Amino acid sequence: MSQYRTFTAADAVEYARQYGQLAEPQALVSADEIGDGNLNLVFKIRDGDGVSRVIVKQALPYVRCVGESWPLTLDRARIEAETLLIHGALCPRHTVKILHHDPELAVMVQEDLSDHHIWRSELVKGRYYPLAAGQLAEYLAQTLFHTSDFYQTAQLKKAEVSRFTNPELCQITEDLFFSDPYQDHERNHFDEALLPQVLELRNDAALKLAVAGLKHRFLSKAEALLHGDIHSGSIFVAEGKLKAIDAEFGFYGPIGFDIGTAIGNLLLNYCGLPGLFGPRDAAAGREQRLQDIRELWLIFADRFLALCHQHSRDATLALPGYAEQFLQQVWADAVGYCGTELIRRTIGLAHVADLDSITDAEMRVECQRSALNLGRVLIVNAPHIAHIDALLARIRQHG
Fold first, then answer.
1. Which CATH architecture has domain 117-398?
2. Alpha carbon of 21 to those of 16, 80, 366: distances in Å?
3. N or C: which end of the chain has fewer CB within 10 A?
């Protein structure tokens, strides 16, 4: 019989005392439930001075933002913890530290990041972290290379693909990215002013054909252990620091999906900045987002290729020129997945503050239209956008 029970604040405090790895565990006295996502309870565990010391996170057996009518497996908590443990071993500097996890209770204890800030919130406020794009690139290069066929043996890789099979959460991605936005679905929500453009997307045969290809690759390309949801809300930043969190969507999938999701969220900010700050004041920030995207890709590609050249264990894949050829496929996938992120975050279930927090309704709709237009351009033209500078040129041309 399962030992699972939904934690109260008192339960979270007691659990943190047992597993928080603190020198004086009895100093922990209170908990605040701060979960603002769609899936989990998240408790900040505080000492007698009110200082947050550790985090206790527990998966709920349903989608929190919908309710018990949308049940979910608790095994996602195991997958999240084990993904972060692997990623943390490969890139400890940029992965949240997991102190303990219990798959029966679907709970984990992790380091407190109160000295960090959610990257999306900082971007929405116009705050710039000059090292963040490069640090994210390093995280992606290390985690994706070391869990790929270039580094893992075929036998270990096949076993890991099985261990990280994550059908229920992958189904959420498959629906929200590749299906819902292109049909009339109850999970979609958007401003009524966008309806003409939404109907155009639903009837765009070329777009839907390209999305079908992206979905098929998501379903079938088990290239590396992805974070699976590496958007700017799943990244904490501080001066000179960056940490990835929230990996419950982890699974073996196409490398370009993680890259495209990361780029897509920087582009969502790019699209929203004119509404957040006004067109004139947004110009410098928009140019900085483009440079962030350029840096993210170039550092990732350079680091990934260096790892391939130095540490590939498969003699066939180590053949000179193959890693470069593979990376070109990753790039095309990334551009396409970037486009799906722009569209689904604008008219699907899960929106972003980069667009939704724009207070002027007319400007908000204009920025949302921009995101939809750019998303379509990237999806349809992904095979023809050969490199990062061509992508930036397309974005600038789009306006």
1. Alpha-Beta Complex (3.90)
2. 8, 20, 49
3. N
Instruction: Quote the pTM value.
Output: 0.96
Read off the pLDDT of residues 132-162 as tens digits, 9 standing for 90 and up.
Answer: 999 999 999 999 999 999 999 999 999 999 9
Joined together, the tokens standing for residue 223 give 């290239």
pLDDT at 35: 82
Contact 323, 356 (CB under 8 A): no
Cα gap 113→237, rounded to integer Å: 9
Q: What ranges do the domains of the chain cover?
A: 9-111, 117-398
Distance CA 95, CA 86 (A): 9
DSSP assignment of 184-203 equals: --TT----GGGHHHHHHHHT
Contacts of 293 (CB under 8 A, 6+ apart): 133, 263, 266, 267, 388, 391, 392
Q: Are strands 40-47 and 52-59 parallel, antiparallel or unpaired?
A: antiparallel
From CA 312, how far away is CA 319, in angstroms rounded? 10
The whole-number average pLDDT for the span 230-257 is 98
pLDDT over 70 at 37, yes or no = no
Please give the backbone phi and psi of residue 237, each rounded to the nearest 5 degrees, phi first: -130, 155
> What helix, strand, coil percent values describe the chain, rounded to 5?
60, 15, 30
Q: Is the model's pLDDT at 1 over the cut of 60?
A: no
pLDDT confidence bin for 77, thresholds 50/70/90: very high
pLDDT recorded at residue 390: 98
Predicted pLDDT at 65: 66
Mean pLDDT of the chain: 96
Q: Is 23 exposed, middle or buried (0-12, 13-18, 19+ CB in 10 A)?
A: exposed
Distance of alpha carbon 119 from alpha carbon 231, whole angstroms: 9
Helix (H, G, I), strand (E, B) or coil at 370: helix
CA distance 238 to 95: 13
Q: How far is CA 280 from CA 122, 358, 391, 396, in A?
A: 20, 16, 23, 16
By CB atoms closer than 10 A (0-12, 13-18, 19+), residue 378 is: buried
CATH of 9-111, one of 3.40.50.1820, 3.40.50.300, 1.10.287.130, 3.30.200.20: 3.30.200.20
Angle between helices 279-311 and 388-398 (to 10 degrees): 160
341 forms beta bridges with: none
